[in-house]
Amino acid sequence: MRVCKKIASVFALVLAASVLLCSTGAEATSSDGNHYTYIYDCWGYDRESPDAYSVTRTITGSDFACGNFVDPEGLYVIGNDMYVADTGNSRIVQLRYENDVFTQVKEIKEFENNGQPDALAQPQDVFVDEEGNTYIADTGNKRIVHLDPDGKLVKVITRPEDETVDQSTDFLPQKLVVDSSKRIFTQVQNVNKGFMEFASDGSFTGFVGASKVTYNFLEYLWKMIATKEQRAQMDLFVPTEYSNLCLDSEGFIYATIGVIGEDKDPLLAQPIRKLNAKGTDILVRNGYYEPAGDLWWVGRGEMSGPSKFVDIACLDNDVYYGLDNTRGRIFSYDFQGNMLYAFGGHGYKAGYFINPVAIEDLGDTLVVLDANLGSITQFTLTEYGTYINEGLSQYKHGDYDASAATWQKVMRLNGNYDQAYIGIGRAYLRQEKYTEAMEYFKLKLDSTNYSKAYKLYRKEWFEDNIGIIIAVIVILILFGYGYGFVKKARKEVEKG
């Protein structure tokens, strides 16, 4: 009987272990992108998260007098005005968002050029500055068009006659921004030297932000001994081509790289970059992982491979959003490169996309353009997302007490949220509460910030106890001299 009971007990344990393993496997399967919003924890596992954004509405061109959008490629927002580069219809459509309602303002199809009508052809992007000047990447016509606030032509920029520019290829501007000095930065198809920069008068001034050339050393050695025909068949060692760009509130360029070589680690390719005036990448990357989208993916199928960023948007609190075209997701990062959350996916449900190509922030909302569906989806911050943005904004403006309190609210909504712990730790660090900060950083394995807190704590401890330390050192020195003197005197006495 006892043997039977033992066998039954062992069987029950095996069965329980099997159920546990099965449930764990099911959880891993469900966490592989099936929930809408998720985060990566300090161990690299994706965890389900409360939604930071909810879908407000989806609009199409048929909702307005302009009619359906056809293969739209570009989106730009300034104030309450949203501009759509309706590529397939060769036009720019201006919409206005007021009192939670979108209305059509105008559409630009053509303009007067030297007294003659001049039509746009498949424009892929648009930018409007504070004065109302409109800059259009008129891709089909191989030019950039600058119109004044009244829609009159100011200048046309075509391929520059410069020795650094390949004259055998077409000038096909796809994306562009204009800074406060009226300098135009444009991403041009098949140009891998960085963004082309034009002065306010339209003259070409050079390339900005060229990626560093990378190559395999063995391939390099092979190229040195290979024949001309063999070298022609090998890939060139060229920098990576950018896919999009935007300007932040301080005038820095945030840029994305959409295509990464198959032999290159996406987490090391730095697909999101922040460029200063010299074109140097100054993006802070202090998070657990590089701002590169998904950490895990499959190698086969329609949505295989790493995240492919096709656009980026920046908020005033230095939060930025990368739009992934591979799996239709939006990745949010803070100013330190920490991933805040990711949401979205491929599909026809609200909040999902088929071919997302552009993202912008419109007030407290996000708008995402889908080229295949010809639609724009608007997302509004939830309570959870609002607290996260508030905590970061308060920290940036130096209100550390309020920031810590806001992160406590985030923790009540999501107790597994690593960035809430880190946010509280950073607030304590700024308040010079180093031991408290160290505790929060330690909980989430944030070694970088923990080291900062520990160094400051150690410095503070030495400053507070310097008198005691010096006194102890003096006592030890005197004790050493005294002991030596006594020992020497004792020897003299013994000899005498």
Describe this structure in words.
The protein has 496 residues and is of the alpha+beta class. It is 29% helix and 29% strand. The protein has nine helices and 27 strands. The protein has helices spanning 2-30, 217-225, 228-233, 383-396, 400-413, 418-430, 434-443, 447-464, 466-495; strands at residues 37-40, 46-48, 53-60, 74-78, 81-86, 91-98, 101-108, 110-113, 116-119, 125-128, 134-138, 143-147, 153-157, 173-178, 184-188, 195-198, 204-208, 242-247, 253-257, 272-275, 309-314, 320-324, 329-333, 339-344, 356-362, 365-370, 375-381. The strands form seven sheets. The protein has a six-stranded antiparallel sheet with strand order 2-1-24-23-22-21, with no helix packed on it. Strands 3-27-26-25 form a four-stranded antiparallel sheet. The protein has a four-stranded antiparallel sheet with strand order 4-5-6-7, with no helix packed on it. It is elongated. The relative contact order is 0.09.
